[in-house]
Amino acid sequence: MAFGRLRKKKQDEAGASVTEDAAAPGEEAEPAPEPQEAPTDAAAEEGTGDTVPAPPAPPAGHVSSADYDRATLGPFDVSEQDTGSGYIDLGALRINATEGLQLRLEVEERSKRVIAVTLDLAGSTLQLQAFAAPKTEGLWDEIREQIGTSVGSQGGTVEERPGRLGTELLAKLPAQTPDGQAGYRVARFVGVNGPRWFLRGVFGGPAALEQGAAAPIEKLFRSVVVVRGDHPLPPRELLQLRLPKDATAGPPAAATPARPDLNPLERGPEITETR
Predict the structure, then answer these.
(1) How far is CA 60 from CA 2, 40, 63, 193, in A?
(2) Coil, helix or strand for 62?
(3) What local confidence, expressed as pLDDT, does residue 225 receive?
(4) Which DSSP string corresponds to 120-146?
(5) CB 249 within 8 A of CB 222
(6) Fewer CB within 10 Å: C terminus or N terminus of the chain?
(7) What's the CA angle centered on 146, arms 121 and 131, to 5 degrees?
(8) Helix (H, G, I), strand (E, B), or coil: what is residue 34?
């Protein structure tokens, strides 16, 4: 397992926008993926007579948000999962120390606090942020609307669909390929409401489009443990993350301009783990 260097960013909100950005210093931009359509299934047959028809069943292998059993499938609350060994402690998030995992932390420039973590696994990425949420209602329905509005304002499109982690958004953002042609980048947004917390994940790379490629990093997402804490927080407040105790920052990266958004498609610099 390897860690990535810290990248400075300004604070993100739960429904933050996603914008195109240049590759990190020393890296080449990856070509934009070719458009792909989400799989579809035939609609369920409607009932007849006076019987009220049942709602269409979710596509095979998928679930809707209302049907997603988070307490069984994950992500988990710290009260539900033992994280005494085999987990990376990032404060509000504990990550399963999977073989081949690389981890990068995003840092707010003004406050110097860690505000997000990006995981690289099997060629795909997953950006995670955890937020405080009300006791009686979740945040995901409202946040999906805000993401759609933000992506649309940037000339992109959003498709809402049922997924294996509940209702998700597939966002396509205009981008330029290395050869100067018009293309797009893809981000797949998922959200899970937990007990007094909300966890947002953004998949990039092959996991944004291919179910087979997404399986390993989806499994990692489901194994995440959220530590909400007992202190009162307003809804949407970021839960505090921190650098692992056994990790140290590597050489400083070349300076990059601060951005008001947090880009889940961007690669960050690297830090090294010491044991």
Answers:
(1) 35, 10, 8, 23
(2) coil
(3) 98
(4) EETTEEEEEEEEE--SS--SHHHHHHH
(5) no
(6) C
(7) 55
(8) coil
Write the pLDDT tens digit of every residue in 154-179: 999 999 999 999 999 999 999 988 88
Coil, strand or helix at 149: helix
For residue 208, CA distances in Å to 101, 151, 176, 218 come to 18, 16, 18, 11
Does position 27 have pLDDT exceeding 80, yes or no? no
- What's the predicted TM-score (pTM) here? 0.70
Pick the residue with more confidence: 36 or 231? 231
The rounded percent of the chain whose pLDDT value lies above 70 is: 65
Going by C-alpha positions, the residue among 157, 156, 147, 256 that lies closest to residue 202 is: 147
Whether the Cβ atoms of residue 263 and residue 274 lie closer than 8 Å to each other = no
Q: Which tokens belong to 226?
A: 């959220």
Q: What is the mean pLDDT of residues 196-225?
A: 96
Strand 225-226: give its sheet, edge to edge: 76-77, 225-226, 93-96, 87-89
Going by the DSSP 8-state scheme, the letter that residue 238 receives in this structure is B
CB atoms inside a 10 Å sphere around CB 133 = 24
pLDDT at position 61 is 40
Write out the two tokens for 96.
């399963």
Q: Which two tokens stand for residue 225?
A: 């443990």
Q: pLDDT averaged over the chain?
A: 75
Look at residue 53 and tell me whether its pLDDT is greater than 60. Answer: no
Rounded CA-CA distance 18/151 in Å is 7
Q: How far is residue 14's CA from residue 238's CA, in Å, rounded to a whole number?
A: 8
Per-residue pLDDT at 206: 96
